[in-house]
Write a structure and sequence with these properties.
Chain lengths: ~220, ~220
């Protein structure tokens, strides 16, 4: 009799858990659908950023500040103002870079740089809002509703599992863009990227797509 | 053809006169200076430890590569930790080393395909930052504006060139079999809390034909 009761109790618990898991899957899927829908209306973004790098081997954080511009289908301009002035512009498959020390523009082909390709593909995934496609690599959990926050844990056997421990994304109140992205790596490093003064679908100065320009 | 040669000479002249993005030391006559005490103030102001954020430019032939470095140096113990990343914050390599060895904590796969990067970086860090004071028994050569201290080591000869009042190390040269293997030039010394930091350093490796520029952005 005792064994029978334990069996019944286990069956009930498992059913509850299955129902809960099903509901939370439905929740996360509808949240991701909603995000993808909201962010798909974005044609261009310009936003200030502060990147804090907390490296395991160092006591103090390294802080980079700058501005990023993205325009569909394939224009990206990442401009760093401190601690050094640097810019990288990606137009389709061409990458142009400029820095204050050399004061030269260098062009690189994306095709000949697999590491660039991988980094840019990752960047596009995180910034585009297409998180449903990342569900094969990450377990995605909704951790907060207001502001909306998601946690991404790499799945066993996935490529990100080799180096990423956890990624957390916090969205702006209107869900139209990211407010903050934090990446914890397995080696103990932690990177936090905060976005401020975000403007969506506003005109962008054409000079922004030149690596050497004074656009700020 | 003649016009072309004139044009080429003009370009070389312009390039040769390009302004160095750093301030050179003010050369002063050193006639009344005692070479044995001349470097004392400088050596006392070398920090025992330093942590800096610097920009790094590696130049080889016509290509250059820019990065951002976070470097911790224990100059007294001759140990270092360096993390080098792209200016957008992607880590390229991270090394821990001392006067004899270097351990790679992380190196981007693509960079490992181009030779022993940790060893080369470790050697350059030592060349720039370690052993920057001449020994007491160095051979001394004094001219009007500079004093050169020469040390013979097992493998080669190191020359320390000091100038200015107060004295500053402006160049360190290393020779093997009479051939200049590498030189480090130091510019823009900054005095922070009583310690001296060369804000701009240029390493020229004549053996392998590359140049390495480092510029301090933050002193911690």
């Amino acid at each position: 009799m005792k064994r029978f009761l334990i069996f019944i109790f286990t069956v009930i618990c498992l059913s509850w858990y299955a129902a809960y898991a099903d509901n939370s899957n439905r929740d996360i899927n509808s949240t991701l659908d909603n995000l993808e829908k909201k962010m798909s209306g974005i044609e261009s973004i310009q936003t200030d950023f502060v990147q804090e790098k907390d490296l395991a081997l160092f006591n103090e954080k390294l802080i980079l500040k700058g501005k990023v511009f993205i325009k569909k289908p394939m224009l990206l301009s990442w401009r760093v103002f401190t601690p050094m002035r640097y810019s990288i512009v990606i137009r389709g498959s061409t990458i142009s870079q400029w820095d204050e020390d050399t004061n030269k523009v260098q062009q690189v082909s994306m095709a000949s740089n697999p590491s660039f390709q991988a980094a840019i593909a990752q960047m596009q995934n995180w910034f585009s809002g297409a998180y449903k496609s990342m569900q094969s690599d990450y377990e995605i959990t909704l951790i907060k509703d207001n502001p909306l926050a998601l946690v991404f844990i790499p799945k066993a056997g996935s490529l990100p599992q080799n180096f990423i421990k956890r990624v957390e994304i916090v969205f702006q109140d209107d869900l139209r863009y990211l407010k903050e992205i934090s990446i914890s790596e397995k080696n103990g490093d932690h990177t936090r990227l905060k976005f401020m003064n975000t403007e969506i679908n506003q005109p962008i100065d054409a000079k922004t797509w030149e690596a050497k320009s004074s656009v700020r | 053809m003649r016009k072309f040669i004139v044009l080429l000479l003009f370009i070389f002249f312009i390039c040769g006169c390009a302004r160095l993005p750093a301030t050179r030391i003010k050369y002063m006559p050193l006639d009344s200076i005692d070479p044995l005490n001349y470097t004392l103030e400088f050596t006392q102001r070398i920090p025992e430890r330093m942590e800096v954020v610097n920009s790094i430019v590696f130049q080889y032939k016509w290509r250059s590569f820019t990065a951002l470095g976070l470097t911790y140096l224990n100059i007294k113990e001759k140990t270092f930790v360096v993390s080098c990343m792209s200016p957008v914050g992607v880590k390229l390599f991270e090394l821990i080393g001392d006067k004899d060895s270097v351990k790679a904590n992380f190196v981007l796969k693509e960079l490992l395909q181009r030779g022993d990067l940790p060893k080369a970086v470790g050697e350059d860090i030592r060349r720039i930052y370690f052993d920057n004071k001449p020994l007491q028994d160095s051979f001394i050569k004094k001219d009007r504006y500079r004093i050169i201290y020469t040390e013979n080591k097992d493998t080669g000869v190191t020359k320390y060139i000091f100038a200015g009042i107060p004295s500053r190390l402006i160049e360190k040269r290393y020779y093997e079999a009479g051939r200049n293997i590498w030189s480090v030039y130091y510019y823009d010394y900054r005095l922070v809390q009583g310690k001296l930091y060369p804000a701009y350093c240029l390493l020229k490796n004549y053996k392998f034909g590359y140049k390495l520029f480092t510029r301090i952005k933050e002193i911690r």
